[in-house]
Amino acid sequence: MSVRRVFASFCVLLFVGGSFAASNSGGKVWLSDLDLSKTQQGWGEPRKNLSVEGNPLKIAGRTFERGLGTHADSLLCIELNGGSSRFHAMVGVDDEAGTRGSVEFRILADGKQIYKSGLIRSNDPAKEVDVDVAGVQMLVLTVDSGNDMNYDHADWADAYFTVTGTAPKTVDAPREEAVILTPKPSPKPRINSARVFGVRPDSPVLYTIAASGQRPLWFNAENLPAGLSLDRATGRITGQLRRPGEHRITLVATNDLGETRKELRLVVGDTIALTPPMGWNSWNCWGCAVDDRKIRDAADSMVKSGLIHHGWQYVNIDDCWMVRRNSDDATVGGPTRDEAGRILTNKRFPDMKGLTDYVHSLGLKVGTYISPGPWTCAGYEGSWQHEQADAQRFAEWGFDYLKYDWCGYGSIVRQPDLEQMQEPYLFMRMCLTRTNRDIVYSLCQYGMGDVWKWGAQVGGNCWRTTGDITDSWGSMSGIGFAQAELAPYASPGHWNDPDMLVVGMVGWGPSLRDSRLTPNEQYTHISLWCLLCSPLLIGCDLTRLDDFTMNLLTNDEILEVNQDPLGEQAHRVTQDNYREVWTKRMEDGSTAVGLFNRDEVPQTVTAKWSDLHVSGKLRVRDLWRQQDMGVFEGAFGVEVPRHGVVLVRLFPAAQ
Ligand code: GAL
């Protein structure tokens, strides 16, 4: 049946029932009677006639019977097809959010902004919106979080269309074609591993030289200190170093097409993770449907796909490898610990040491997860009162990374003060240090107590700054762009962590889907996370990587921005009209600049030298396209697509 005929029958049916809104009350169609599931938002689910948390819609004490309860950053596209004359709503922050919400509502009609609320805060009275939409084909409703998406519960209350013709219909947001911007890596050898690597005295060293280029490749390492040795075929450096100090090693990679050299600064000292960790984590992909096979498959794919050649190295098991409390499911239930108090795996992980050995045998590293509480977020055994034993067990199993997730600890201290927030993290730090293994320590407590201000003091290598990410524009951009104030707290060995990547096939298991981020949003995601010096943990199924996702994850000039040894997190230098310019100083004196467009339509974004604190003639290189754009003086401007980015690096013109 054609769309037109379906619509005609729909009209007749409703008309016969006498209830079609357009036939009475001036053709009123409530927004909340449309399919609201098309709404994309930063947190929670869209709600019909209720707030995002399921309460009656209430703005500054006034209750509304109808409307859409959502959360910034929120986006809803509605096809009007010229059938409506006006749109009305009362907008504001829902009272359930307390006092800290702040949002901006906007309406775009066929790409032109026809309404902008300005910043609305918690407890501001609802603002009335009444706009002319005659002749409009597509209406877009957005709620933006500004700089901080916490508590941004937003209501489009009392929202309705005055319909004169075709009824409004919500539709999916536009999705552009997935264009691969980056040329294929050259067959000539190129060393892609970071220029600096930290190890602790006496800890076992595993460093795999990441290099792309036609195989076979042969490796060499000049000035390798005594205690370390190199496998020339695999590029793996192993061994142990006793004394603190710094070694400058020249890495060499050779194939039939030539030779390349790169200096590596090996720092033997207290600090590891001198560049942000790069790897994969099971959560955004498999959730609790994770098992030994899936981890092995991820590790195999990291090698076979070639990701390993671009510096990807950690394979991290998230929640659900332990025994689940009170579970009837034989694959995850059973005793949680042995008589000696040692933690047990569930049956989906029959041989943890065998698994970690396997991952190591591929030249990769392996990570684990647990909570300081009695149980994890998903209800599996936690470390509470077994911290030292668990740290010891993790070291025996050979783990290289620990994500320590607050979760169940909330039952130990319900409203923690700062000291109570820090205590479990300090304690596990002490336990890990005793193990004599280089275990990257990742704090996960969603940013409580401004963790970025003290994460390094409690010995964390990285700390989550936000709640969980999901694969929506609202979530990713709301989180990513809110990191601007956190730049001063990042440094080598100590990274802000805005959560894991949501490109490729994700789904929190067992079933997966393609990331709902559009291709341009995915470019924005990777660019921003690189500028932010964020740990890069891929969250998708590595066994099913498409060409577009591979391109996103293997552009070495982009990854270099993340892995730069200076470790300086990008700053936002300008923000105007949904355009943002971010800049990151690189060790070699060049500057990486992200030109972002958070708007619903293409915009020209300009970076001015004076804002970037650079001067003179500069060569501008487009990093996604790996192409020089020319020499510019004073400013560089470029058209950036909806939700997209152009990431460039500025070099002195003569270089
Ligand atoms: C959450 C954490 C997620 C994931 C999950 C596992 O608290 O933020 O990243 O680890 O727990 O249950």
Q: What is the compact description of this entry?
A:
This protein has 655 residues and is an alpha+beta fold.
List keywords for this structure.
8-stranded parallel β-sheet, Jelly Rolls, binds beta-D-galactopyranose, alpha+beta, Immunoglobulin-like, disordered N terminus, 6-stranded antiparallel β-sheet, TIM Barrel
Overview of the molecule:
By secondary structure, the chain is of the alpha+beta class. Mean pLDDT is 94; it is low at 1-25. The chain has 4 domains: 17-171, NPCBM/NEW2 domain (Jelly Rolls, Sandwich); 190-268, Immunoglobulin-like (Sandwich), CATH 2.60.40.10; 278-563, TIM Barrel, CATH 3.20.20; 572-652, Golgi alpha-mannosidase II (Immunoglobulin-like, Sandwich), CATH 2.60.40. Helix 3 (292-304) packs parallel to helix 4 and helix 8 (519-531) packs parallel to helix 10. It is built from 11 helices and 41 strands. It has an 8-stranded parallel beta sheet with strand order 30-29-28-27-26-25-24-33. Strands 1, 2, 5, 7, 11 and 13 form a 6-stranded antiparallel beta sheet that branches. The termini are far apart. Beta-D-galactopyranose binds next to loops.
